[in-house]
Amino acid sequence: MARFLIVEARFYGHLNDMLVEGARGALEAAGHEAEVLTVPGALEIPGAIALAVEGGGYDGFVAIGVVIRGETYHFEIVAGESARAIMALTMDGIAIGNGILTVENEEQALVRADPAQKDKGGEAAKAALALYDLQRKFLP
Length: 140
Ligand SMILES: Nc1c(NC[C@H](O)[C@H](O)[C@H](O)CO)[nH]c(=O)[nH]c1=O
Ligand SMILES: CC(=O)[C@@H](O)COP(=O)(O)O
What we know:
Bound molecules: ligand LW54GNZ2, ligand LTPLIIQW
Helix content: 40-55%
CATH superfamily: Lumazine/riboflavin synthase
Strand order of the largest sheet: 2-1-3-4
Order of helices and strands: EHEHEHEHH
CATH topology: Rossmann fold
Distance between the termini: 16 Å
């Protein structure tokens, strides 16, 4: 059994609850342990994961958040920089699934967060599991 950390940005709580439910469900269905750590927004997720890696004790991570376009360029910063930093951690060999939704409106987010519909939280957890399996294959 492996130990995964779900790092969720609590910016849109009700949407995150669904994403976390999907992620936790996928990890537990695969026989693994899931813990949840909360940060304020998507921009804090990569830093939190980097700190948790430094601290040790986790085999993989699932980034959970929702970024909804507003009126300004802030959307591009939050969506782009969080994805870029998560990808940088992935390229360092850390098993991370990116479940940060980047959407135009809440309606799009709901369909994607709902475990009974697009289940993007579960999908991100499965991506983390796939990378964890690859770590064990190539770095036994
Ligand atoms: N607008 C959204 C944010 N913005 C907040 C940033 O992520 C960050 O917490 C702040 O800039 C302080 O560093 N975060 C989201 O998760 N979703 C958004 O739509
Ligand atoms: C991430 C966003 O775009 C949003 O929360 C910020 O909204 P605004 O651009 O209207 O300040």
